[in-house]
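Anyone up for a design puzzle?
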């Protein structure tokens, strides 16, 4: 995504976090688990014998750099008062001399659970590489890669133009005709165009759309009233950005749908990380990454406690693009081609934002290896979608796409 209105006030986050915990935690008896402590996730060991798994959850974190994922808070930006409002407070929370400890502080679920029980790849320090295939290095083309396994040459901007390229959610919906069992929740209001609303029956909730109780599968009066309360808070809480809602609402709506409708396949696209980065607020960018780690921990803990999902679900996570690596360019992302056209506002970087094509992939589930050993030195983001399809055993739908990332699989049912 691109920068919207640069407000980035902590007040907005306080309102939303209070609203999220007071409203969404009452939507079902399961919700009282809240944001489960990350160490509790370590106890949810996966039964690797249940293969193939029939459910899939895809999660994306918009514009989260590999640097924070693998090494935690940037030691220079962490102390920079130009991009951090209170450097001492931030350093106390996320700082450490050792990169491993910084990463653990920032994203404990990623490093205590995903990295140990599943896979976390794309660390250039370990000579790993997960890169974009598209020519632009911004959001819309990146999401096309994630959700279709292809590059759409017609998508050259973030404009609200519907892509012609079918995504894997609609392919699954069209094949199986799941009733409300394939769903997409996202913070950005361009997603209806990316996900091709109107071309299929996938449930899509994005941007500034509230969630109707009947769509969420609610029948009990108390649950309906609590969702209505959440909708009221959402509709009366302004976002810092013109086209993106805060992730706390996206998460609350997605979890409500997950608990009550129990979809076979669902995708959740969070956006706070990218927008706070564009606003130049490194502290809020880190807080957003940390919050999203907790949200994903809650998601996985719920999956591993619900009999419908436990040991039958794969969770795949990635990002649509990277960012720059210095104080001058960490806020930005664009290729050399992009800065000559749609992203010409970054023309002071004639070579584009170096490194913003570098992303990462994480995953966990019964057919995903635990801490697999492999080179992972030439992985492309276009391999994400076919890997997701292969994990579902959808070999025919994966045909004519890039090769799946076979090195992370316990078995490849499509071999």
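Challenge accepted. My sequence:
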């Amino acid at each position: 995504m691109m920068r919207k209105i640069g407000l980035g006030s902590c007040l907005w986050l306080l309102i939303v976090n209070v609203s999220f915990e007071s409203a969404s935690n009452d939507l079902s008896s399961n919700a009282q688990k809240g944001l489960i402590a990350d160490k509790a996730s370590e106890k949810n060991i996966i039964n690797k014998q249940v293969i193939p798994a029939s459910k899939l959850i895809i999660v994306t974190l918009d514009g989260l750099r590999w640097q924070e994922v693998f090494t935690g808070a940037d030691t220079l930006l962490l102390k920079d008062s130009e991009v951090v409002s209170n450097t001492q407070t931030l350093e106390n929370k996320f700082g450490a001399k050792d990169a491993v400890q910084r990463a653990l502080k920032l994203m404990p679920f990623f490093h205590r659970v995903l990295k140990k029980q599943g896979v976390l790849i794309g660390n250039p320090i370990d000579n790993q590489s997960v890169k974009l295939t598209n020519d632009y290095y911004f959001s819309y083309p990146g999401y096309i890669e994630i959700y279709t396994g292809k590059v759409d040459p017609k998508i050259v901007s973030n404009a609200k133009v519907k892509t012609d390229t079918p995504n894997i959610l609609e392919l699954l919906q069209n094949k199986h005709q799941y009733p409300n069992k394939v769903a997409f929740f996202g913070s950005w209001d361009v997603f209806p165009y990316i996900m091709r609303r109107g071309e299929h029956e996938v449930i899509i909730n994005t941007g500034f759309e509230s969630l109707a109780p009947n769509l969420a599968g609610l029948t009990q009066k108390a649950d309906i009233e609590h969702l209505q309360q959440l909708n009221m808070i959402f509709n009366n809480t302004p976002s810092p950005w013109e086209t993106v809602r805060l992730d706390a609402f996206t998460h609350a709506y997605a979890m409500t749908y997950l608990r009550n409708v129990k979809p076979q396949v669902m995708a959740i696209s969070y956006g706070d990380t990218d927008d706070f980065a564009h606003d130049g607020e490194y502290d809020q960018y880190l807080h957003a990454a940390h919050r999203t780690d907790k949200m994903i921990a809650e998601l996985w803990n719920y999956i591993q406690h619900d009999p419908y999902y436990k040991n039958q679900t794969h969770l795949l996570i990635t990002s649509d693009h990277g960012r720059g690596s210095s104080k001058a360019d960490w806020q930005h992302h664009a290729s050399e081609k992009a800065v000559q056209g749609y992203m010409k506002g970054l023309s002071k970087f004639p070579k584009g934002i170096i490194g913003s094509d570098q992303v990462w992939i994480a995953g966990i589930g019964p057919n995903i290896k635990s801490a697999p050993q492999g080179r992972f030195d030439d992985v492309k983001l276009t391999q994400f979608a076919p890997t997701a399809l292969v994990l579902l055993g959808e070999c025919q739908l994966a045909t004519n796409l890039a090769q799946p990332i076979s090195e992370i699989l316990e078995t490849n049912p499509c071999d």
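A detail worth pointing out: Residues 273 and 288 are 5 Å apart (CA to CA).
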